[in-house]
Design brief:
Layout (H helix, E strand, L loop, with lengths): L6 H10 L4 H11 L11 E11 L3 H4 L5 E12 L3 E7 L5 E10 L4 E2 L1 E6 L5 E10 L4 E11 L7 E8 L6 E8 L20 E9 L5 E4 L3 E6 L4 E6 L12 E4 L2 E4 L8 E6 L8 H18 L9 E7 L6 E2 L4 E5 L12 H16 L7 E3 L6 H18 L5 H16 L14 H6 L3 H18 L1 H14 L3 E3 L1 H8 L10 H9 L5 E8 L2 E8 L14 E3 L1 E3 L13 E3 L5 E4 L7 E3 L8 E4 L1 H11 L9 H16 L5 H7 L9 H18 L4 H13 L1 H6 L10 H16 L3 H17 L8 H10 L4 H14 L3 H10 L6 H9 L13 H11 L3 H11 L1 H7 L5 H12 L3 H12 L5 H31 L27 H4 L21 H8 L5
Parallel strand pairs: 1-11, 17-18, 18-20, 21-22, 23-30
Antiparallel strand pairs: 1-2, 2-8, 3-7, 4-5, 4-8, 6-7, 9-10, 11-14, 12-15, 13-14, 16-17, 19-20, 23-24, 24-28, 25-27, 26-29
């Protein structure tokens, strides 16, 4: 069925589900059962007893996917009913026997069972009535099928043993958001929490080991040489957190958590030397989180296992006590893994461990408010990690890589933090930039509104009061607001404007006759977007008269939905900066006079003591205000003239994102694009000299990030000093097997290949390096670089590897290969689009992981700069070959392309005038999109994803684009929908 169903009908169905099951069933028939995705609210499961039997063939034969299972669910109902309604996915679960008894053993006759293949709702119809508030046990015996394509539910994975060169099979799980029902019948919604008693039976003698959420309780081997592993009963938890794995993985043990709990990392045996970082981070992060939240991990859990899975659609998944990861998000080689990936792994692990409190202990009631899980995990992935690893400067990176990303992506068409979701497609869409990055940014704003002491104490109360339960946003705001002061209303009133409204405000600041006026409007990029939304906005500011105010992030005033904020000055000011350390989730636009004062201040010694994070804020705001037409581009370029003396990584990260947007719209090889590139090279001259490509210092993290960021741009803009060094180091690697410095590899691999005199030979060399390396982070770096050549045949051959089962590219990386091509090469958009069109049927059949097809299509569309490319996309959409879900994504992509073209039409003239370019002149060569860069990485949103994990997803929300990022960062975002 088309997922774009009538939401009004869904709402009617959903709103009635809390009444009686009879009404619910009638509605299924009257409205069409495919319209109802939610379960009735009358059932309360309290315990599951799950036993799964996995035969030996699963672990010895490629195509063996069958298993058997039983599940007994203890539950009550709040009404008298004659049916039980729960979930089972008929694609993977075939129920053979169903029985229901009362707690005292009375058996009930079942007259019928049905399952809807679209909603995956399973109905058990009874001959007699169940009584409200009595306890019943519903038991299923079923045949199960392991997934082998989409890495969801209970699925089969494999890897090659480096010693024997044989394929090794394992089974593992990924239940979030709606895939527990693919492993066993259950009440598969987050608010239906229960305890779980899980046991697994599997063959003895194959060297297998079973892991679960809980520690082993009992292990027996029967006469048929079958091991049955029984695990301790779990705490009360949601079905999407259930996890189990049977594999030949080995483990390494780290320092005990809280002095008593086992701390293990599991992976393929030949990766045992890469587990230490994850063990260290787990111990350190849990110590920080225990102290910060005042509630120990051991309150509910008795151990921690972290596992690297060879095939994993998400970035990572926060299963309670058994956290699962992609290999590249967990395993680290000190000598081979870049600083960027080192920091990235630390952040991902902390993100997942934060979920042990926010998500596992206290869970969002429904996926519409998943930001209650993911926003907190994003917040602490920076804040808790900063306490444990201050050298990463993640307090500052939170602004440039979460707040700015959220603001850039939170455009006219994005949805609110709290947005209804019913279908699986709608639920998956909630795992994106809004829930992760905006969620984390808004929570950071609340922390600064309340003050750290009140914030920490209130979080402890929230976690304690709602432990083992589920919450909605107002539950959180009510607890946080109990001791709040200096608010313009209740915290619920204040935060509902941020939770329920899409977008964000721009605060307009004007000065007249010593009176400052702060007013608001919704920030929009299109005149057609509704702008009547208003917020409660906390105002902080600093002037030249008192620069110590930068340290004060408590509100000095408020703009309300109905009133502006005014401040009377006692004397004139040289400048004002609003939004100290960008703790408020909004942009700031000053009147012309104040912008001019600020531009002058930034040109003074030490930038007039304006901190680098506020310089990054000013830069990011100015670029985006110019993009939206709030200020002119000539005004923008005047404001950012200070960049010629700037050396801060955080400021340059924001600045280059802004320039990247211009180049991605204008086209790198046009005369205007070349002029913009020359502008960037002129501005970066000073900072480039501070991080020369031939002087590495991996012990200085921020230096290294700055070096990779700036040298990537230098190579991108064809600075011969950078490109010649990349070519030299690539040739040295090829001739001597001496690899480039671990932090420069992304540059050397990409630009050495791009400027190669023998592209096919060098491509094959790097491809062989990909196939031979066992280090997952190196694999990802190479995958991104292989998209860099400006050679159609080579790039087409590279994309073709995603259509082969034996090429060496895993299904989890298909979208990453496409991203490498359309993001890294001057011809990559055309090659990727042509390949997508020519091979759509095969792609749709094979790319089943994490909305990969939608992701690829939107990614290509975001890079389109020519009319010919647009025509190709239009023909594809009108061809009728796309299924309904992909067609929806394609139409969204078309709208985005047209919007981008409209932007070019609006701004190209003024940009050409500024650069003294005669419109219409071009240089030879096609338009160029963003090349591969690897400055560093970001968990979200992805995700991303980013990322639980289970947010993870997708790439980030429709319309979002993290400009100027490294390609490796972009690839990270592809699988962080579920971290």
């Amino acid at each position: 069925m088309d997922d774009t169903v009538d939401l009004a009908i869904q709402g009617k169905c959903r709103n009635r589900m809390g009444r009686t099951t009879v009404i619910f069933i009638l509605l299924l028939h009257l409205l069409g059962s495919t319209f109802c995705y939610r379960l009735p609210t009358i059932y309360s499961p309290s315990n599951y007893v799950v036993h799964l039997q996995i035969p030996s063939e699963v672990f010895t034969t490629a195509n063996a996917t069958n298993y058997n299972g039983t599940v007994s669910i203890t539950f009550t109902t709040s009404e008298n009913v004659s049916e039980v309604v729960l979930h089972a996915n008929p694609e993977f679960i075939n129920v053979t026997t169903t029985s229901l008894t009362s707690e005292n053993g009375t058996e009930y006759i079942i007259t019928n069972t049905t399952v809807n293949s679209t909603t995956e709702i399973f109905n058990v119809v009874l001959e007699s009535t169940l009584n409200a508030n009595e306890t019943y046990i519903l038991k299923f015996i079923f045949d199960g099928t392991l997934s082998t394509a989409n890495m969801y539910g209970f699925y089969k994975s494999s890897y090659e043993d480096s010693t024997t060169n044989r394929t090794v099979y394992l089974v593992t799980t990924q239940m979030e958001p709606t895939y527990a029902r693919s492993a066993f019948p259950c009440f598969d919604e987050p608010k239906y929490k229960a305890t779980f008693n899980i046991s697994l039976s599997y063959p003895n003698g194959l060297g297998l080991k079973a892991l679960g959420n809980m520690a082993s309780l009992n292990e027996t081997t029967n006469s048929n040489d079958v091991i049955t592993q029984e695990f301790e009963q779990s705490p009360v938890m949601s079905t999407y957190l259930v996890a189990f794995i049977i594999s030949k993985f080995t483990s390494s043990e780290g320092e005990l958590i809280e002095g008593t709990l086992k701390n293990l990392v599991w992976s393929q045996e030949d990766t045992n030397g890469t587990r230490q970082l994850a063990l260290e981070v787990a111990h350190r992060s849990i110590e920080v989180l225990n102290a910060y939240l005042g509630l120990n991990y051991s309150t509910k859990m008795t151990k921690l296992d972290q596992v690297a899975i060879p095939d994993f659609s998400a970035g990572a998944m926060e299963n309670w006590g058994l956290v699962t990861y992609r290999q590249e998000t967990l395993l680290y080689d000190e000598n081979e893994t870049s600083n960027a990936y080192w920091a990235y792994i630390i952040k991902v692990v902390t993100h997942e461990l934060t979920h042990q409190w926010f998500g596992d202990l206290v869970t969002c009631s429904w996926w519409s408010e998943i930001f209650l899980n993911e926003g907190f995990a994003t917040f602490f992935e920076y804040i808790a990690t900063h306490e444990g690893y201050p050298e990463l400067e993640l307090d500052k990176q939170f602004v440039t890589k979460t707040v700015h990303y959220a603001l850039d992506a939170d455009t006219d068409t994005t949805e609110a933090l709290h947005t209804n979701a019913n279908t699986q497609s709608e639920i998956s869409a909630r795992f994106g930039t809004v829930s992760y990055d905006k969620g984390g940014s808004v929570l950071r704003m609340v922390e600064h509104i309340l003050g750290e002491d009140i914030w920490k104490a209130a979080l402890n109360v929230y976690l304690t009061e709602y432990a083992d339960s589920s919450t909605e946003p107002n539950d959180l705001w009510e607890v946080l607001g109990r001791n709040a002061t200096n608010l313009p209303g209740t915290l619920i009133d204040v935060m509902n404007s941020w939770t329920n409204s899409p977008g964000f405000p721009v605060v307009n600041v004007s000065l007249q006759n010593l009176q400052l006026t702060f007013s608001q409007q919704r920030f929009v990029l299109s005149n057609s977007t509704a702008t009547n939304i208003t917020w409660y906005i906390p105002i902080t500011y600093t002037t030249d008269g008192n620069i110590t105010l930068f340290q004060n992030t408590s509100p000095l005033g408020w703009i309300t939905p109905t009133s502006s904020f005014q401040l009377n000055l006692t004397s004139d000011i040289s400048w004002i900066v609003v939004n100290n350390f960008e703790t408020g989730y909004y942009r700031v636009n000053y009147d012309t006079n104040l912008w001019t004062k600020l531009a002058v201040a930034l040109q003074q010694t030490n930038f007039s003591n304006i901190p680098d994070i506020n310089r990054a804020q000013i830069t990011n705001d100015a670029f985006t205000l110019a993009r939206g037409g709030y200020i002119s581009y000539s005004q923008l370029f005047s404001i950012i003239e200070f960049l010629s003396r700037e050396v801060s990584y955080h400021v340059w990260y924001s600045a280059l994102n802004g320039f990247d947007y211009l180049l991605s719209r204008i086209g790198h090889s046009t005369s205007l694009g070349l002029a913009i590139g020359e502008h960037v090279l002129n501005l970066t001259a000073t900072v480039l000299s501070s991080v020369p490509i031939n002087t590495t210092n991996s012990s200085h993290h921020i230096y290294t990030l700055n070096q990779v960021l700036l040298q990537t741009w230098s190579c991108r803009l064809n600075n011969s000093e950078c490109t010649s060094e990349a070519v030299r180091l690539f040739a040295q690697y090829k001739n001597t097997s001496v690899k480039p410095d671990k932090n420069l590899r992304s540059i050397v691999y990409c630009y050495g290949l791009k400027h190669s005199s023998s592209i096919e030979s060098d491509f094959n060399f790097l491809w062989s390096a990909f196939l031979s390396t066992k280090l997952s982070t190196e694999q990802v770096t190479i995958l991104s670089a292989l998209g860099c050549p400006n050679d159609e045949a080579v790039l087409t051959s590279y994309l073709s590897k995603t259509l082969s089962d034996t090429s060496g590219v895993r299904a989890q990386d298909y979208a990453a290969v496409f991203s490498a091509v359309y993001s890294s090469s001057s011809i990559g958009v055309d090659v990727a689009l042509d390949f997508f069109i020519a091979n759509y049927s095969s792609i749709a059949a094979r790319y089943t992981s994490l909305n990969s097809v939608r992701t690829i299509l939107k990614g290509i569309a975001a890079k389109i700069t020519t009319d010919a490319q647009l025509v190709k996309l239009e023909h594809l959409v009108s061809s009728g070959v796309l299924n309904a879900t992909i067609e929806e994504a394609a139409n969204e992509a078309l709208n985005a392309v047209r919007s981008n073209f409209e932007w070019v039409s609006t701004h190209k003239s003024s940009l050409s005038k500024y650069y003294n370019i005669t419109e219409g002149t071009t240089t030879e060569g096609p338009n160029v999109t963003t090349p591969a860069v690897t400055p560093d990485s970001n968990v979200t949103s992805p995700g991303t994803g980013s990322s639980s994990e289970g947010t993870s997803t997708t790439p980030k929300d429709s319309g979002s684009a993290r400009f100027g990022l490294s390609l490796v960062e972009l690839l990270m975002g592809l699988f962080l929908l579920m971290v």
